[in-house]
User: Fold this.
Amino acid sequence: MDRWHTSPSWAARFTMGSTEQIDAVDADFRVDPAPRLTLGVQHAGRLALVTEQGKLPLTTCGISGMLDRPRQFAYTERVSHTLLHFRPEAAYAVLGIGAHALSGQSLAIADLLGPSVSNELFERVCEAPDRTARVRAMVQVLDALPERRTVSLFVQEAKRRIEASNGVLPIHEIRRALGVNERRLERRFLEEVGLPPKAYARLVRFTHAAHLARTADTLADVACIAGYSDPAHFAREVKRYTGKPASALRTAV
Assistant:
């Protein structure tokens, strides 16, 4: 067999963690690219995406795909929201869409899964008494969804090897080890994960480097450990993904 099926408890396997803001107001914040999807439920107030055209309010229940550029958000009023982070292949396996269609996008759960799922998600999160209960409610609603597609074993293994090497292992070596031709891996990885393999490895390496930058002695050390050719290369990647100089990673939260 070269395919596997998601288990009934898919959310537990795909979940990468959660974050929450309670009663946040009058603030903008930036979200940098990361290899994950984010499901958000606004149980009070409203968040907005900051664009050149102004602030665009987000739906109360939505999901955002992987980003290749930073995005700016704002609290348009007093806001409480809970975010649940998932591995990117969850879009393909459970939401039933090509993961690439979600990359760089924020879509309403009502549009993807129907108003009944969106309403149940919102109501159960609003009724939950604390963060733990809210996250549990989100997982339970998602766990009740049927599997829509299967995920290729060779894509999962390629993704695992990219992540295990923190994005440094060359894609041609992974492809050779798996016995998969370039076109097939590119096509399936883009469809099931959301980015081409090289772009995903690049994002994984940047995410690892950003984490290292918070504790490493120097940014030159970060560039070396993360596998960049030199500090200038690392600085260009930071600028590409965050719009800021590499030194800004030192104070990133």
Notes: The longest strand covers residues 15-24. DSSP finds eleven helices and eleven strands in the chain. Confidence is low (pLDDT under 50) at residues 1-8.
